[in-house]
Amino acid sequence: xxxxxxxxxxxxxxxxxxxxxxxxxxxxxxxxxxxxxxxxxxxxxxxxxxxxxxxxxxxxxxxxxxxxxxxxxxxxxxxxxxxxxxxxxxxxxxxxxxxxxxxxxxxxxxxxxxxxxxxxxxxxxxxxxxxxxxxxxxxxxxxxxxxxxxxxxxxxxxxxxxxxxxxxxxxxxxxxxxxxxxxxxxxxxxxxxxxxxxxxxxxxxxxxxxxxxxxxxxxxxxxxxxxxxxxxxxxxxxxxxxxxxxxxxxxxxxxxxxxxxxxxxxxxxxxxxxxxxxxxxxxxxxxxxxxxxxxxxxxxxxxxxxxxxxxxxxxxxxxxxxxxxxxxxxxxxxxxxxxxxxxxxxxxxxxx
Length: 352
Prior knowledge:
Layout: H1 2-22, E1 27-30, E2 55-59, E3 62-65, E4 70-71, H2 76-81, E5 86-87, E6 91-96, H3 102-119, E7 125-130, H4 131-137, H5 142-149, E8 156-161, H6 164-175, E9 182-188, H7 196-209, E10 213-218, E11 229-236, E12 242-243, E13 246-247, E14 256-264, E15 271-277, E16 282-285, H8 289-299, H9 339-346
Parallel strand pairs: 6-10, 6-11, 7-8, 7-9, 9-10
Antiparallel strand pairs: 1-2, 2-3, 4-5, 11-14, 12-13, 14-15, 15-16
Helix pairs in contact: 6-7
């Protein structure tokens, strides 16, 4: 037992020393039961990844107990893997591996924004991007912000920068402002200027202001950054809408995301499928619903026709709809043009 304790102390001492040298990635450890808030950072702490545990962020050799330091995503397994959720006062990466995943990445970021605005009501969110990314991925639909995420259009501000250097400058200045609920920086690819130093500056300003900064990276490859958490987001297939009688065939259910933990100091790599409930403004994990939906479609290949109003029997299925009469059929009087139309058809075609 003594040997294990010494080995554990050595490992955690090395981890703290590495974090102190890098000055970038915070380490989440459980605070000692009898330790005060200003306890020495070199005190040995035992890791605890259980949900709801009192956590301490250790960075730059200083420890501070922050019980409300994380934004819970609302999915028990994912929050437990991340030791409480995403850090509120930190830089977090949200990756899309392909350009076509830009909509899913933006939708996931808006879902997180909806969760943030529940706690920081009245404060706006600033979305920063380059002209290139906004032309490629577009802007969020203003009327859909409130319907799907409960975000008023006036709460989401946009800053379009012509160059990446300008976007980084705006993001650094905005990240230090406490008048914003969150800052979103959307970048395409792996530009050279978005290096470890640039992400360190964003992370340091987020820590100082106590506000989250989300770095959306579209069509990007993972690379070293100062963000303590990196989530890889891709769209997941929607399942049919659930009704009392079972899944409604041919319908499209809630938006779904496949979330992979690409980087975290406290979590092993894992994958989760989340659905966003636009009515409750909350995430729900999909576990088995997609398999049951496929099984339902296999057992019931014919779509069910809904009952007509005022009738007990289902409406008859519609027959074949043809744009032209069958080949070989004789034209009827209905197919002939009227006398007024005949002159128009026979008249000369005007040029210009």
